[in-house]
Amino acid sequence: MLIKPYGDTSGDGAVQLSFTLPVKNCGRAKEAARLYAQKLGFHKVDVVHAAALSEEFTFFVAYGKTEVGLDYDKVEYAEAVNDCMSMDAVNEFIKTHLRRKLVIVGACTGTDAHTVGIDAIMNMKGYNHHFGLERYPMIEAFNLGSQVPNEKLLSYARQVKADAVLVSQIVTQKDVHIKNLTELVELAEAEKLRGEMLLVVGGPRVNNKLAKELGYDAGFGPGTYAEHVATFVARKLHERMSGKK
Amino acid sequence: MTPVKSKLGLSKPKIAKARELAADIAAPVQEFIDGHTTVTIERATLRLLGADGATSDGVPVPNLIASQCADKLSGGAARYYLNALIKQDRTPAELNKEIACGLDITKFELTDLGRIRNKAEEAVKGMDARIAGNVAHRNSELARNGGAMKSPLIYVIVATGNIYEDVKQAQAAAGEGADIIAVIRTTAQSLLDYVPYGATTEGFGGTYATQENFRIMRAALDETGSKEGRYIRLVNYCSGLCMPEIAAMGALERLDMMLNDSMYGILFRDINMYRTFTDQFFSRMINSAADIIINTGEDNYLTTSDAVEKAHTVLASQLINEKFAFNAGMPARLMGLGHAYEIDPELKNGFLYEYAQALMAREIFPDHPLKYMPPTKFMTGDIFKGYAMNTLFNFVSRATGQSIELLGMLTEAIHTPYLQDRHLAIENALYVHNTMAGFMDEVEFKKEGVMARRARQVLDETIEMLSDVKRRGLFSAIETGMFAEIKRPRDGGKGFDGVYEKAPGYYNPVEDFLKKKLEIGRRPRAASRG
Ligand code: B12
Fold this sequence. Notes:
heterodimer, A: alpha/beta, Defensin A-like, 2 domains, 5-stranded parallel β-sheet, 3-stranded antiparallel β-sheet, B: 20 helices, 51% helix, globular, binds cobalamin
């Protein structure tokens, strides 16, 4: 199936844009904005708004149409979990299929000081009326907080024989999160922990695809709740136990 | 700006009771503060006496002197610097160079105290003249462009990491209507136990606070201000491990506002509590002497706690911040107490609660330049919804006569502001401020309505909490997580080893000067309004 953006008619390819150019606001600047949008591949470009941000910068709002289409059938993306179990269902699942408590260690790592995301997943109270992992009877959860060095997270995980390690990365400027996440995977591999425990990452700029590319078992983005992670971890461990891939 | 009568029907005796509790809470802490100094207080003192510069590896001269003093710091570092100025017969600039090249000033035999005092007087006079000059300049500029503080003042941040890029963005924002520019500090600067030196271009999520960066931005804003015919205020952070030193730099370079909270460092940066309490006092004396408005950080509580459930922690902290500031000789007109619009947008009637809480703050702190912070926690990648939330925030801000309004950015959940984000934010605020200019005088609220009841409830909960904090003592209250649900042990955290009990004969001419100028210790520390 070939798809294109939908504005007001099927296949019209309409897109809304806003951007700033380093020029003084004037007729020529607007024309430059139009041409620039054209260069991006849009035709019928309409620059509907131009505002001076200063003597040297102008902000534009523009609409354009594109001929570019995409074959949706060729798009590949797998969510870490599709059908998420409830807290109670997860507990039942662990009880019946894994028959022991799971140990999960989590932290916001590197220089990142944001705790709210990892707390939302792990702390008793949870987030948005969804309880956190500490509340799960069949899960023993350890939240190490923020600014935790990768080494410390892994040594703790080893010490408590973790089944899964959860990493939160909120700050993404200059790709610090990529560097930090890569370092963790390398460390885990060097210490031969990679096969021992699941590595899961989450954060507002994270998704399952990025996580996989970086060598993690799963990645979760905005709007994640504890049950998503718990479902993933329980099922994945079960798969591994029963030798399925 | 100041409402004549309470629209929320808040009880005056209850407000007085809450203030009294805050005073009782602060008193034992103040006793500790009065008997102690810290390594950064000593460095700030040295800076105000003229110590400046750094080694080629970037170690600041005040830090070099502090390490030379080592345990002698408990008696005050000033005498060694003053003594060296006398013994070497040097100007501060000359002496600083020699120290940066390796001169140990503690090795000189101390001359008699009389000569040291004379030298101190000369240095303090110079400092006083510079700071008073800055105050006079600011006041005359403000008087020239209209005088009275408009409400609310528009506050935006720049955070590129590069001071020269910051300048471009700050000048653009000021040109569009921003009244206040805050240069956000690079991540983790608050945990450095020194202030970096010189102009910097490589910060992360913000720009290093250095004296040279202060100067660069000050000059840029003065330039834009004179073009626009408005005085543009400059803000930086004196929080972290170097509160007093950064306050000193701000006083010297004519900053107009500084973030300065009595507990933020403890709770959100894990700085030792004795250190922070002692540092905030000295830094606030400097702020007061330089007529710098402080901004406290109560908004932060609501990023880790629920804004409805924990609204009273904000008011409790404001009252504690107020008391500590009074103790540091600060008048109410310099206390930019913080609060925030952080209620979950999904909550029914959330707007009414926000409105009530903001108005409550205004009524309880009528003479204070309140700092109101925008939605951040519930901002998402849906920038359009975020823009709508910011509009309501602007509405409440104008409708309750807030003084300093930190504008929300539609891209809050995504990145530090783009040039165009700031433009959209200012456009939104100017629109709202203008279209509802007279709104505040038009409305009253039902005596038993949602808003009046909400404000009363928050005040009651605050009194309850403050009573509890008083019973336990502030140190224990922080240890048990009563603020922001974060627990900090009293002997834990960073910077504890930099706290010294003042030795007998402790000598600090800058402290003496500040206390005299601000009349601290001469009048009773009552909850008097300054
Ligand atoms: C609150 C906050 C703070 C608080 C943090 C308090 C605390 N204890 O956490 C304070 C004030 C301390 C703070 C500081 C800073 N912050 Co901040 N902060 C925010 C803010 C407003 C909200 C974050 C939040 O709590 N969201 C709510 C939670 C529930 O959402 P979440 O984190 O996305 O988590 C969910 C999912 O992502 C996922 N998830 C997250 N982690 C994990 C982990 C796993 C394993 C899983 C499965 C899922 C998962 O599940 C969660 C629930 O659904 C955001 C802006 C925003 N609206 O996002 C900026 C923001 C994140 N901060 C930012 C910055 C730059 C900073 C500072 C560097 C500023 C400075 N110069 O000092 C410092 C960072 C210091 C440091 N060393 O890290 C930027 C980051 C920009 C970027 N893309 O890199 C943002 C986006 C703001 C901005 N526009 O500038 N910040």
